[in-house]
């Protein structure tokens, strides 16, 4: 049975879908597109990717949504600094996001909504909150009244009384309560705006995600995913405004991945201490980055350094020679694969799953079981984790070693030790190295 840690309950729970139709509905908080994607975005993507892969392995159908926040304060600041229209900035960064996304072999989401494409839904949600008395106007802005929602803090565990004005919450004299958050911002000079019943303006950040998730997944859905830095205030505010508007529970499970840190400090665009995703993919490739992230459980923070990624690269290289893209899906060692699947179904335990993979490699080297069966099992586990089968190419060391073996084989043939010569040929063939004996010599290639 699939189990997942729920931030809401602070416990690992047996997963039970909201709907009886077996379809699991997932909303993943996506990028704010004032800048290009970085390693933190890669971690969030890989987390929700393995989540969806494991749900499918467990027999569920999945419908998933990944949003883009393409209008907010940060994007407007970027527009003012660069003198480039916010729509151009957004599109450039979204284009780069998809380059990174496709390189990483992330499963496609079903919908990629943008906040600016859902102004109508946002206005409708704000209107409901005003009508029900959960929101109020202050000048040209509309705010959500936190004190009206008795469950505020139930996700983050924060208490209203403990959130002191000016310490953890931005001071704003226009608010009735310092914890109140903006739903609609009145238009300002040189800023984008839309027309609404409350006047010209633009949406606040939190209301955007509620409107988009409700439109595509319904008023109550299964899983809301994102980084741990979004728990408060973003996800806390989403719950408050959504449940007040609909009168129903919002998301049942809240899945949050840990942060990527650099020298103990959270990596983020606002702090400027980021490693760009595209640059890292050029340096290490998608498989090494995925492997690096899988070595740490998704809920734990990762300390990022090039040394640690290099270590992951070295470990990953041990795995590659044992893989075969054309493996037989149904021909696996049942016990090994069950242990692997059990690890993933136990709160996405990728470190344990990787451990099982390397135990299998050791079994191959020790010739403990049928090698063909173990290689099939390895390739199946590798594919299930979302890794890409890499085209095998000749490298200098491989070429030197094969040439040495071919010279030994030629000596064996001259000495009429054909059994040893054939053994060398067959052992190389198992490793996808194909020998061709020609009249004028021997050639070899690595089979795709």
Automatic annotation (TrEMBL):
**An example Gene Ontology molecular-function term:** cysteine-tRNA ligase activity
List cofactor names only. Zn(2+)
Q: Which SUPFAM superfamilies does UniProt cross-reference here?
A: Anticodon-binding domain of a subclass of class I aminoacyl-tRNA synthetases, Nucleotidylyl transferase
How the cofactor is bound: the record states:
Binds 1 zinc ion per subunit.
**Binding-site list for Zn(2+):** 29, 209, 234, 238
Residues where ATP binds: 269
SMART domains, per the entry: DALR_2
Location of this chain's protein in the cell: Cytoplasm
Residue ranges annotated as motif 'KMSKS' region? 266-270
Q: Which Gene3D superfamilies match?
A: Cysteine-tRNA ligase, C-terminal anti-codon recognition domain, HUPs
- Which biological process terms from the Gene Ontology are attached to this UniProt entry? cysteinyl-tRNA aminoacylation
GO cellular component labels: cytosol
Under which EC number(s) is this enzyme classified? 6.1.1.16
InterPro entries in UniProt? Cys-tRNA-ligase (IPR015803), Cys-tRNA-synt_Ia_DALR (IPR015273), Cys-tRNA/MSH_ligase (IPR024909), Rossmann-like_a/b/a_fold (IPR014729), tRNA-synt_1_cat_dom (IPR032678), tRNAsynth_Ia_anticodon-bd (IPR009080)
Q: Does Nucleotide-binding show up as a keyword for this record?
A: yes
Question: What parts of the sequence cross the membrane?
Answer: none
Primary enzyme class: ligase
Q: Tell me the first and last residues of the signal peptide.
A: none
- Which positions does the motif 'HIGH' region occupy? 31-41
Catalytic activity annotation: tRNA(Cys) + L-cysteine + ATP = L-cysteinyl-tRNA(Cys) + AMP + diphosphate
Question: Subunit structure, briefly?
Answer: Monomer.
The name on file for this protein is Cysteine--tRNA ligase
User: Gene for this protein?
Assistant: cysS
